[in-house]
Amino acid sequence: MKKILLLVFVCFLGIQMTFAQDVISVKEFLKIKGNDNVVLVSTRKATDYAKVHIDGAIHVNHKDLYKAEPKSTLKSTAEIAKILGAKGISNTNTIVLYDNGSGKYSGRVYWILKYLGAKDVKILDGHMKAWRMARKPVTKNPVKRKATTFNVALNKAAIADIVQVKKASNSSAAVVVDVRSADEYKGIKESKLPKGHIPNAINLEFKKVMTSKSKLKSKEELQALFNAAGITKDKEVILYCESSVRAGVVYMALKSALAYPKVKVYDGALFEWTATETVQK
């Protein structure tokens, strides 16, 4: 009987670890913090990093990874790999990301790293809020790691282009998801871009995958959320927002927490779409 109970416990623990494979708690992070292969990355704004950051964290600004046009779209993979390598980030590191708690910036860098083929990328659950609540050390002193090489192993399944989005928006086998607020989706909120959304796209705001404490919701809560929105595992899922910065954390929730097989981020996002295509209200 004891062996059976132990086996059930181990299986349960395995399920929990699988769910949390790309989310790491402050307590779990502290256990690996001293490992030389672990890189802690603040994805907050440079001004925030300069004021205070988690002790030992380097800084990566997601905007440094973009080309000028279309706005907020990725530089070449070679350019991004060079930037990451100069920061001391290798594709074989365990990379732990955090931001102020919105999940936007860490999620964006998470998706970029997964797209480039980084093997082990995690997001600190609760971000800076959780670190502060745990009363762990912070500093103003910038951190610099020894430069290394980031070898790209491109994950083409993680990205969608405008041709794929057009096809998906007219397919019952796919769902295009606008992760902006409802007012942005409906074209109510003021915007420099044409008001509205990609035709036939549905709306699920990125904030809904997290709790009020900036932690990822449970597997059960996430599955119920996506099912209610019609975002099911049998469909190809393409995520976007104005710049697709907000899409990254939803990508992580679908791929890591729920193991959805076909999830992409439309990197061109509305900036690219509205340059040539119409929107729907």
From TrEMBL:
Domain Rhodanese: from-to ranges: 34-140, 170-278
Signal peptide range: 1-20
Superkingdom of the organism of origin: Bacteria
Keyword Flavoprotein among record annotations: no
Keywords, comma-separated and alphabetical: Pyruvate, Repeat, Signal, Transferase
Protein name as catalogued: Thiosulfate/3-mercaptopyruvate sulfurtransferase
Species this protein is from: Marinifilum flexuosum
SMART domains, A to Z: RHOD (SM00450)
MF term (GO), any: transferase activity
The keyword Signal is assigned to this record: yes
Pfam families linked: Rhodanese (PF00581)
